[in-house]
Every structure is written in structure tokens, then in C-alpha cells.
Amino acid sequence: MLSGMKKFFKESSKDLKRIDKWVGAVNRLEGEFERCSDQELRRMKERFTNELNAGKNLRELQIEAFAVVREASKRVLKLRPYDVQLMGAFVLNEGAIAQMNTGEGKTLVATLPSYLHALRGKGVHIITANEYLARRDKELMGQIHEYLGLSVGLNISGLNAAEKRAAYAADITYGTATEFGFDYLRDHMVFRREEKVQRGHSFALVDEIDSILIDEARTPLIIAGKSSEGAALYEITAQIMKTFIEDADYEVSIESGSASFTDQGASKIEGAFGIDNLYDLEHQELLHNVSQALKAYVIMKRDVDYIIMDGHISLIDKFTGRVMEGRSFSDGLHQAIEAKEGLEISAENETQASITIQNYFRLYDSMSGMTGSALPSKAEFREIYQLPVIEIPANNPIIRSDERDLIYRDEIGKINQIVKAVKRIHETGRPILIGTTSIEQSEKISVHLGRVKIKHQILHAKTERDEAEIIAKAGRKNEVMLATNMAGRGTDIILDEAVRNLGGLHIIGTERHESNRVDMQLRGRAGRQGDPGTSQFIISLEDALFNYYDREEMDRYLKKIKTDETGLVVGPAPDKFVRKVQETVEQQHQSSRNHSFKLERALNEQSEIIYAMRDEILDLKTERLHAILLEYIEKYIRRLTLKYDQENTDASGPSALIEELSFVLPSLDWQESDFRNGDVQLVEAKAMGALAELKPVLDIYQDDPDWDDQVRAFILHHIDSNWMNHLDEMNGVKEGIGLSGYGQQDPYMLFEREALSRFNLLLNKIESEISVHFLEFMKSNQEDDGAMESDE
């Protein structure tokens, strides 16, 4: 839907001049609305709604509406939105991304455009980076909306269907991207229209939009069913992997995050299972299993990619350090990790429905977002989402000092310098935030700080429940906090006055991230709203970032470097080299996202067709359901006739056709002798006659209140089961599509062609299965009715 939007902003200085005039207009109304009573402010909702219904658009109302919300904020929260916050609100209202520095009060900014868009009565979704922020913002900022007569809902995991429907029925709904996406998928698995929870996709306002639409874009949302097969096999292969040796039995590609068996490794597996060739087609399932076991063993790292909580594997979002609620690894990888860790093997997931974050947000009629770090990805936002990025000036000048990176040859040199820097700054009383990229790294540095008796707090996925309390203390004198990236988004570190006088918060980054945007967010924890502060990255050439870089180029640079006695790299041009590596890795990830987007485009279009089919079935009453069933059976008969008319030129044609049609119309009295000269058209005519006689039989069920639900469930079951199989097949096809062309052919065109061919087969198969099994379903239903009558 977003692709068709006309964008108002052109990302130029003229935009800011125009917005500044609008801000001035809001300011001129401030005195007028200050004189309004509470009731008069609430009644503005009714007036605005009437004007929208009369034909006005949102832009014509935005100045007055924002003046109303500003006054409500002053009365309810004692907060008056700054002029720059109004500027951000105007950008959001027009469907663009507001780049606003951290600490500029983006959460309050969101209240203005969300109020105005909610007046249309279609629902506004405010997307936050995690459930903690969703709950906090709903409880705090929701007070403004409720004061003005709007309802506010909270959509988080763990709610039942009725609670979710209530959350979505509100004028404004706060929640996380994953929960909104999962609800969309679940809504297309229901068997009754009233079981759905969402009510459309009108307007989404996304906080920390780059984290959600860029960083999470490569991770699809998957609804999975359970299959208990293969638990013992995972345990066996996990034991085999423990005997494997790198380079001898397997090889690892850190850049691509993959591992493969050597000939020796494959031979060991063949010997263990008593087979001749692991790569034979008949051993495809075993190959998949041992490949996932190998990935679990050598690629997936505990306290980096996942943690163990309460005896279960929980995924870690590498960009935020948070637990990814409700997520599990797919294609048996989750079970392989459980086997590796000696945990109980859970039921394996079978994909029932999936959507990427990219495609979910493209469902909205309009969307906007805010972040402190969108500019590095503005081209990608424009290309994928048609969202321009507008930079909003800071309310107060940024006086934070960003010191030059210290780059060490090895990790131990880096850690020694981090501890040294923490000791030096800690002695001044200034608070320190040490940003890490994984739980493993946080805990390693914690050990070293403990050895020099520096008291500190740790914030990561294992301590997420204590986040608010830990963050509240982080700006106090003498505080030292170790945090994964979860502390870099959406959280305020408030400084004591004494701390401001000492120089403010000091940030230490322990690794350069795969994305410079995340580094920007970490730095932005200090120096908010004109506060003093400093930041510095202390990294090493052994950090994870450099594993993604070309190995040969890395080795060439390592041979040339010069270091001092502490291991600090002093040449050649270490800062320039690190920037080059980070930019290269960012480009690789962007290419990966574009690759995923292009492959998913065809599947997304197919899912929309399948979901439209489901929605049509959900809405149909008995007569129309019967018509569709008869239409499916008629099409099936004609396809079979055409098949045998083309394939058989002798008298065997009618015989073979009759045999297949006997599954569809088992009660028909076939007399093959009636059909002479191999004329399959006569067979078709008799089948059509029998089909016509089926209609009055179906009419008997016209007044049966349970019949609709039973037929609907029957049809939806065949749509869903075949769609699941299709998704599995297409996942296999996707794995075979590389970024390079095959025989100078566009791989994406090849994929789309293959996807279309298989999708047409899928549609035919759905209709065929429904046709073949419907009379059997009817017979079963009649028998059940008879059994019930006899019981009575």
C-alpha cells in the first residue's frame, strides 16, 4: 500500500522553513487554548471529526489539533512540547521519518500526529522497540489521549484473543512490531471471522524506526505448528558433532555464518549411520538434520545468539540484546541447539504462515517514524518503504565530546585499556555506561572490573526485568553500568546535578557494531538536551566485526600495522581502516536485506491471494459456499476431461477418466459400455449431470446452523495444509537462489517464474483436493448425524 503514496517532503531546507511557519501558527494559538476549559478541549475531538467527515483532510486540521494536544500535555503531564518537537510531529503527520537526536523527547512527539490520525476512526498503531517501552508509553502518554476523549490500548504477548480485540478496538494501540505482525498471521489462520483481532492497517507510527524496519528486516515472523518427529535423531547427531574437529571434519565461513562438512566429516556420518552417500536424495532429511546440528555446534553461540532461561532456549536480538519473545529458530535449528545444550527436545516447528517485517509494514495505508539514526540508511528507507528522512534540529546544542577511537591489536589489550579508563573516570565520580554487543562480552568485562574492585551493574537479557530500576540509577554519581544494546534505545538516563558539574555521563563502546547507526545510538545516551558528556570506543582487531571482513584483506592489514607497548594500533590509519570495514559490512547486510526483499516479494503477493481466498470463505453463507464447492468440482471434472482428451487417443481414455472421477462422484452408476469410440466428452457430460443432481442434496443443509461452520472448516483446512506445504517447498527454492545470475539470467526473475508456476499448481491442488474429498466429508457428516439421532 505504501508504494502508492504521494510523498509531500522532498528532504530539503525548504521543508524545514515551511514546517517552521506551521510551528509559529501553533504557537499563536497557545493563548486561545489555554483559556479553554477541560470540557472545551475534549469537545475539539467531535469538531475535528465532523470536519473530516465533511471533506477536510488531516493537513488542514493539523495546526489546531497540535495546539490542542500541546495544551493537554501541559495540563496532564506538565510537559510543554518544544518547537522542535512540534516540527517532528509535522514530519510524522505527513508520512515521513523524523531524524531527532536522542533525548529530544520523541515519545511525546508521537502524541500529536497519533491524536490527529486517530480522529479518522480507523485505529492508530504506535510501534515501540520492546514491550517495556510499549507499556511505559501507553501508561504515560496515553493519559494525554484519554484526557482528550480517545481510547488507548496495549498489545503485548500473553493476551488472550478477547483482550487483543479490545486493544485493537481502541483509537490508539501501543505494542511491538513482532506482536502486531504475529497477530496479522494468526488472523489469517482463524476459522471464523469473529475470531480475528485486528481491524485493518490504517496508520503506523514507528519509534526507533531504523531498528525495526532495517535491523529486524532480515528476520521473518513465522507462525509454526508442532511436529514431534526426530527428537532422538537430534540427540544422536549432537553427540556426533562433539567428536568433530574444525578443518579436519568441517570448515567454517564466519563471513556468511555457515559451516560445511569436509569429505572426512561426511564419511564419519556415513559410517555412523551405515549409509553409502550422505548426499543421496534418499538421505535428504538426514543431511538437513546433521547440517543443522553442525550449525548449532559451531556457529550458534550461547549468551550471544541465545540464552538458557528456565531450561528453555530464548533467542537474543543481536541489535538490542533483548530476548525475542515468542520466537524460535526454524528448520530444526532450535531442536539442534537444545540437543547441543542437553535440554529436553521440543516439538519441531513446521511453518504455517510467515511474513517479513518489511512486508508487514507495507500493509499500512500510511506510516511514519522517528529515530536518532536514520540518515545513514535514508536511501534504503526511500527505496523499500518510500519514506523520506527529514533531520530535525536539536532543542539545545549538543556539547558532548566524542573522543577518537582507541584500536588495539588484540582483545586483552582492549580490555586492559577499558579497565584502566573506567578506573580513571570512576575516581572522578562521573557515571559510566559501558556498551557491549553480547551478554558473553558483558560478563567477561564484568569479571575484569570485579578484579579491580569496581562495583557495577549489568543490564542485558538476563536482567531485563530490572531494566527500569537499573536505568534510573545509571546517571548517579559513581555509578558504572555494563549494558548490551538494550540500553541504547528508548531509555533516558537522567543525570544528578552533581554529575552535570563533574562533566556528565561517559560512554565507553567496547566494539564497533555492524551498523554505525547502533554506535550513534550508544553515543547518544550522553549529552542529551544540552547535558555535558563524553564518549569513546575502545575496540580491538579481534572483535566480531572484523570476522565479516574479507580474510585476505584483513591479513594484509595485520601484517602492516604498528603498535605501541600496550598493543594500541598507531598505524597505518587505523580509524580509516575500521570505517572501511564497518561500511563494507553494512553494505553486505543491506545487500542481504535487498536479496530477501526481492525473494519475498513474490511470496508476499501469493500470501495476499491465499488470505483473500480465506477471507472470502469466512464471509460466505450456505448458498454461496455450496456454489463455490460445485464450481470447484466442475472445474476439476473439466480439467480431468481435458487431460485425458489430450493424452489418450484410444478407447482407454474413458476408462481412466471414469476411474479418477469415481473418487469425486463415488455414487454414480458408471456404464462404460455406454461410451463408444473413446469419447471422454460423454463421460464428462454424465459427470456434469450427476453434479447438477448434487445441488438439491446440498440444499437440504440450508437451514442447518452448524453446517456453515463445518463446510467452512473443511475448505479452510485444505487451503491451509496446501499453503503450508507450498511455503516449505518455496523455502527450499529460496535456498538455491544466489545473488549471482545463473547462465547470465536474473536469479530473481527465475525465482518469480518458479514461484508462479508452483503457485498455479497449488491453486489447482487446493480445488482438486476439495473436490475429491467433499462427498466423503458429506458422507461422514451424514453418518455422524445418524449416530446422534440413534443415540437419542
Automatic annotation (TrEMBL):
<dbReference type="GO" id="GO:0043952">
    <property type="term" value="P:protein transport by the Sec complex"/>
</dbReference>
<dbReference type="InterPro" id="IPR036670">
    <property type="entry name" value="SecA_X-link_sf"/>
</dbReference>
<dbReference type="InterPro" id="IPR014001">
    <property type="entry name" value="Helicase_ATP-bd"/>
</dbReference>
<dbReference type="GO" id="GO:0008564">
    <property type="term" value="F:protein-exporting ATPase activity"/>
</dbReference>
<feature type="domain" description="SecA family profile">
    <location>
        <begin position="1"/>
        <end position="570"/>
    </location>
</feature>
<dbReference type="GO" id="GO:0065002">
    <property type="term" value="P:intracellular protein transmembrane transport"/>
</dbReference>
<keyword id="KW-1003">Cell membrane</keyword>
<keyword id="KW-0653">Protein transport</keyword>
<keyword id="KW-0811">Translocation</keyword>
<feature type="domain" description="Helicase C-terminal">
    <location>
        <begin position="414"/>
        <end position="569"/>
    </location>
</feature>
<keyword id="KW-0547">Nucleotide-binding</keyword>
<feature type="domain" description="Helicase ATP-binding">
    <location>
        <begin position="87"/>
        <end position="244"/>
    </location>
</feature>
<feature type="binding site">
    <location>
        <position position="492"/>
    </location>
    <ligand>
        <name>ATP</name>
    </ligand>
</feature>
<dbReference type="GO" id="GO:0005829">
    <property type="term" value="C:cytosol"/>
</dbReference>
<dbReference type="GO" id="GO:0031522">
    <property type="term" value="C:cell envelope Sec protein transport complex"/>
</dbReference>
<dbReference type="Pfam" id="PF07517">
    <property type="entry name" value="SecA_DEAD"/>
</dbReference>
<feature type="binding site">
    <location>
        <position position="85"/>
    </location>
    <ligand>
        <name>ATP</name>
    </ligand>
</feature>
<dbReference type="InterPro" id="IPR000185">
    <property type="entry name" value="SecA"/>
</dbReference>
<dbReference type="Pfam" id="PF21090">
    <property type="entry name" value="P-loop_SecA"/>
</dbReference>
<comment type="function">
    <text>Part of the Sec protein translocase complex. Interacts with the SecYEG preprotein conducting channel. Has a central role in coupling the hydrolysis of ATP to the transfer of proteins into and across the cell membrane, serving as an ATP-driven molecular motor driving the stepwise translocation of polypeptide chains across the membrane.</text>
</comment>
<dbReference type="InterPro" id="IPR011130">
    <property type="entry name" value="SecA_preprotein_X-link_dom"/>
</dbReference>
<comment type="subunit">
    <text>Monomer and homodimer. Part of the essential Sec protein translocation apparatus which comprises SecA, SecYEG and auxiliary proteins SecDF. Other proteins may also be involved.</text>
</comment>
<dbReference type="InterPro" id="IPR036266">
    <property type="entry name" value="SecA_Wing/Scaffold_sf"/>
</dbReference>
<comment type="similarity">
    <text>Belongs to the SecA family.</text>
</comment>
<keyword id="KW-0963">Cytoplasm</keyword>
<feature type="binding site">
    <location>
        <begin position="103"/>
        <end position="107"/>
    </location>
    <ligand>
        <name>ATP</name>
    </ligand>
</feature>
<dbReference type="InterPro" id="IPR014018">
    <property type="entry name" value="SecA_motor_DEAD"/>
</dbReference>
<dbReference type="GO" id="GO:0005524">
    <property type="term" value="F:ATP binding"/>
</dbReference>
<dbReference type="GO" id="GO:0005886">
    <property type="term" value="C:plasma membrane"/>
</dbReference>
<dbReference type="GO" id="GO:0006605">
    <property type="term" value="P:protein targeting"/>
</dbReference>
<dbReference type="GO" id="GO:0017038">
    <property type="term" value="P:protein import"/>
</dbReference>
<protein>
    <recommendedName>
        <fullName>Protein translocase subunit SecA</fullName>
        <ecNumber>7.4.2.8</ecNumber>
    </recommendedName>
</protein>
<dbReference type="Pfam" id="PF01043">
    <property type="entry name" value="SecA_PP_bind"/>
</dbReference>
<keyword id="KW-0472">Membrane</keyword>
<dbReference type="Pfam" id="PF07516">
    <property type="entry name" value="SecA_SW"/>
</dbReference>
<dbReference type="InterPro" id="IPR027417">
    <property type="entry name" value="P-loop_NTPase"/>
</dbReference>
<dbReference type="InterPro" id="IPR044722">
    <property type="entry name" value="SecA_SF2_C"/>
</dbReference>
<dbReference type="InterPro" id="IPR001650">
    <property type="entry name" value="Helicase_C-like"/>
</dbReference>
<dbReference type="InterPro" id="IPR011115">
    <property type="entry name" value="SecA_DEAD"/>
</dbReference>
<keyword id="KW-1278">Translocase</keyword>
<keyword id="KW-0067">ATP-binding</keyword>
<keyword id="KW-0813">Transport</keyword>
